[in-house]
Amino acid sequence: MADSLLAREQFNKQAVNFNNWAVTQDERNHRFLYDFFDLAESDRLLDVACGTGAFSVYAGRKIRAVWGVDISEKMVEIAVESAARNGLSNVNFLCCGVERLPFADSSFECVVSKSAFHHLQDCQTVFREMARCCRKLGRVGIQDIVLYGDNRLDSFFEALERKIDLSHNRSLSKEETVELYRQNGLKVTRLFESVSELRFDEYVSHAVQTAEAKEEIRKMISRGLKDTGISRWLVERNGVSYWRRKVLTIAGEKL
Amino acid sequence: MICRGVKENVKRGMVKERIQKFMEEAFQARFGSGLAEDSDLFKAGVIDSFGYLKLIRHLENDFGIKFSEEEMLSNVFVTFSGLVECISQKVQAER
């Protein structure tokens, strides 16, 4: 099965879990992103690989218009229901691949993608499309998990990500993400690196795994907790395991 | 040369005072009492994601400066001393 079809099938399977995940609905982060991307009432926003549209719906309450695009029919179905439930006629969703965005050049003041780049097979093409759809002096923003910058850690955690979520392709490094901006003639205007502490059980449940994969995840965690380097990023408190995940939030201006 | 050096030090002192006042008011940061000027402000819990935006916007407005891409990519916002150094240089350069 082609990678994109596999990813779509996986997204369809786990759309409900993904939508119910606390991180997906984290309104505090949505408020931060709204501010970080300098969104304003008159803006038109394009949310690329929008999933179940939580950020699109949040932004749609405040700005002129939002378009969300995602490859998964089930994700888009939930997003459409959410916009309707919130009475937002200015928020629209399209189900299509994100390598060719169905919008004219310079259609949006702001184009963003949240928690999606690690799923993409061709980040360069998607970013080029995001930049194309953004008007001059508009903003292009990304928030996503990034590599730790240590081969041993990255090898372990990338393998773990793929066990948890079949649709995980590859996390980018901070430098690779910045390079996307440079290659497409955008100036980086904001960059924020953070560490999110994710409850491990919730993180696993946001996706769907086979019984065999669940057992492999359990073994990997057990091994990771015994490793001094890895256990720095897998911590246990009061019997609850957390994964300390590096996150990059970045915005740039189209020159 | 000596005169210029003195002026630069005075300027740096003023920049430091203004940033320190803002950090005390906005983030309750008290340098010297357990918080060193080169402490990582994020790891110390002084600044979070919202604080980062608040700090950048304040500095850009207060000093009438724009941070370059290079400054955004480096770690100038991580420590108080890094911020003072960066803004002192920018203020000098723009005069």
Write the layout of secondary structure elements.
The complex is a heterodimer of chains A (255) and B (95).
Chain A: H1 3-20, H2 27-36, E1 44-48, H3 54-60, E2 65-70, H4 73-85, E3 91-95, E4 108-114, H5 123-133, E5 134-145, H6 151-164, H7 174-183, E6 186-199, H8 200-205, H9 211-225, H10 228-231, E7 234-237, E8 240-254
Helix pairs in contact in A: 1-4, 2-3, 6-9
Chain B: H1 2-27, H2 49-63, H3 69-73, H4 80-94
Helix pairs in contact in B: 1-4
Task: Outline the structure in words.
The complex is a heterodimer of chains A (255) and B (95). Chain A has 255 residues and is of the alpha/beta class. In chain A, 42% of the residues lie in helices and 27% in strands. Chain A contains ten helices and eight strands. Chain A has helices spanning 3-20, 27-36, 54-60, 73-85, 123-133, 151-164, 174-183, 200-205, 211-225, 228-231, and strands spanning 44-48, 65-70, 91-95, 108-114, 134-145, 186-199, 234-237, 240-254. In chain A, strands 1, 2, 3, 4, 5, 6, 7 and 8 form an eight-stranded mixed beta sheet that branches. In chain A, helix 6 packs antiparallel against helix 9 (211-225). The mean pLDDT of chain A is 96. Chain B has 95 residues and is mostly helical. Helix content of chain B is 64%, strand content 0%. Chain B is built from four helices and no strands. Chain B has helices at residues 2-27, 49-63, 69-73, 80-94.
